[in-house]
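During the second year of the project, the team shifted from modelling isolated chains to modelling whole assemblies. The rationale, set out in the original proposal, was that interfaces cannot be judged from single-chain predictions alone. As a representative example for this report, we include one of the complexes processed in the last quarter. Its constituent sequences, exactly as entered into the pipeline, are reproduced here:
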Amino acid sequence: MVEEVLTALQVKSDGLYIDCTTGEGGHALSILKAVSPPPRLIGFDLDADALKAASSRLKEFEQYVELVQGNYADMTSVVNALGIDHVDGVLMDLGISSLQLNEGHRGFSFQQEAPLDMRFDEGQTVTAADVVNEYSEQDLANAIYKYGEERGSRRIARGIVYARPLGTTTQLADVVARSVGRPRGRIHPATKTFQAIRMVVNGELENVEAGLEQGIQLLEQGGRLAIISYHSLEDRLVKTTFRTESRDCICPPETPKCVCGHTASIRLVNRRVIKPKDEEVAANPRSRSARLRVVERT
Ligand SMILES: C[S@@+](CC[C@H](N)C(=O)[O-])C[C@H]1O[C@@H](n2cnc3c(N)ncnc32)[C@H](O)[C@@H]1O
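Output from the structure prediction step:
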């Protein structure tokens, strides 16, 4: 959703932008190319391989770019350490990149045999193998239900615990498939479980929560935050945070007089969520679940 992101961010030459999830640098490149001279950009990613790819892709703009291998949930302290208090725009393009999915050895894909890893940051100690082999059956079922919205979570958790120890992606995928029985539709039965375990390993929802709060706080007045999510749980979190932060009062509706003292810090730029155009979905089927929301700092 490159075009939509550029419209959302209203990039200006003297602006400073944070790309929280640089990946291979696709969005970052389009932000840098949007205006001449290019703006400054700070690009975060947890994944050293992704940043290596981004660094070579953004080579011609290197004087405008600072790439940081780190968690966007720490963005305030990182940019403060660079002497920056405020920025003109923040972009978050959540989840996993195609590079990560296609790098078989990283363990994100159930279609390629690999150790159960799934870490965005390969320096992190907790891997998918730890979650799969060490969580209690109850905790596994809860995680698969919450983060995967998987109705068969209990059966899957029971199957995993019975089959332990599990070492590889294909072993996990087989156990899930056996636990849920016949596939429903065209989606592989392990899709939701893999997503849930990846989200647990990387603390994804907690990071989104911290990233939203810090992103909003870092914006200059009139600055924009654009966020693309691919999962209804994330999109719901984004939607409720934006609703709350765009209201002057968050008292329960039955309260006769405001007692919360809350003031709006943002304005919703788009009331309805922005979805990718049909042509984009046709060219890149993985984009079909993308949802873009945009706010402006008041
Ligand atoms: C969907 S991809 C971004 C693709 C990118 N917009 C592009 O155009 O190439 C998401 C990226 O976010 C990174 N990521 C996920 N959680 C992160 C976090 N908490 N902090 C920093 N990067 C994170 C992943 O490693 C992945 O490379």
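The two ends are 25 Å apart (CA to CA). Residues 204-218 form the longest helix (15 residues).
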